[in-house]
Amino acid sequence: MPELPEMEALASVLRDRAVGKVVTRAEPVAINALRTVSPGPADLVGATLVDATRHGKFLDLVFAGTGGERLDLVAHLSRAGWLRWKDSQPTTPGRGGRGGLAWRLVFDDGSGFDLTEAGTQKRLAVYLVRDPAEVPGVARLGIDPLDPAFTVEALAALLTAAGRSQVKGVLTDQSVLAGVGNAYSDEVLWAARLSPFAPSSGLSGDQVAALHEALVGTLRAAVEAAGGLGAADLKAEKKANLAVHARTGEACPRCGDTVRQVSFADRSLQYCPTCQTGGRLLADRRLSRLLK
């Protein structure tokens, strides 16, 4: 799933390539992807892109309509969605099919982008609104980890409020922290040398400080690594820089121990026993506990 660094990079691509361009076609190819009714896609035709930004894992394209009114095209790519920029879009209407095309936007110079989604679980969501706060997922977002207001003290307060909840779950709760998902939470916890199942309120002051440093540092490094890359190269860049996530069975790059996995019904996490759990293995079941 695209997370904060990838969404920041995609927004940057669109700012560089599309700001100032006028929409000539807005095509909701997969009707189930469009989650709003009014404004409609026709209202985008003639609108000018004035900015591209993000809210956590939501991409927000800000348009000025033909009457100067604001329109926001907000997209959540979910687990298998992606944005594909094209310098020259097809002149024929888009169709769904093997490519998983969900949405197509074309600008006045013929360029544009497609939103696509692989797999059978169609969760990609597009919202056309006049204020991004109208999108339920945006409205409930917690603080952005790259916001200057996200201090060590702010993180400590969030962890205390979470009580005995596992720190992995707190990091990925979008109502607590905006933009961190399964992959980067694994990376952050590895960098901070913390078990994913450590109780949030049980962390010491030093551990909270280490977690804050790892969280901000990991995300900033990923944003910088993705800077300047085209949308087509972002997935490979992310994968190349992961230390433990999706690297089950490989050697930990810090200590050489074998990276282990805990599987759940629809996802998994990876960790290093030596670096994060004192050498103990985590039980591979939903309600995992440290094996004694």
Automatic annotation (TrEMBL):
The processes (GO biological process) annotated in the record are:
base-excision repair
Listed EC numbers: 4.2.99.18
One Pfam family cited in the UniProt record for this chain: H2TH
The enzyme class is lyase
Q: Which UniProt keywords apply?
A: DNA damage, DNA repair, DNA-binding, Glycosidase, Hydrolase, Lyase, Metal-binding, Multifunctional enzyme, Zinc, Zinc-finger
Q: Which reaction does it catalyse?
A: Hydrolysis of DNA containing ring-opened 7-methylguanine residues, releasing 2,6-diamino-4-hydroxy-5-(N-methyl)formamidopyrimidine; 2'-deoxyribonucleotide-(2'-deoxyribose 5'-phosphate)-2'-deoxyribonucleotide-DNA = a 3'-end 2'-deoxyribonucleotide-(2,3-dehydro-2,3-deoxyribose 5'-phosphate)-DNA + a 5'-end 5'-phospho-2'-deoxyribonucleoside-DNA + H(+)
Please indicate which superkingdom the organism of origin belongs to: Bacteria
Where are the annotated coiled coils located?
none
PROSITE patterns hit by this protein: FPG_CAT, ZF_FPG_1, ZF_FPG_2
Residue stretches making up the Formamidopyrimidine-DNA glycosylase catalytic domain: 2-114
**What are its cofactors?**
Zn(2+)
A GO molecular function term, named singly, is:
class I DNA-(apurinic or apyrimidinic site) endonuclease activity
Annotated FPG-type domain residues = 243-277
Protein family according to the UniProt entry: Belongs to the FPG family.
* Listed PANTHER family: FORMAMIDOPYRIMIDINE-DNA GLYCOSYLASE
Q: What is this protein called?
A: DNA-(Apurinic or apyrimidinic site) lyase
Instruction: Give the organism the record lists.
Output: Pseudofrankia inefficax (strain DSM 45817 / CECT 9037 / DDB 130130 / EuI1c) (Frankia inefficax)
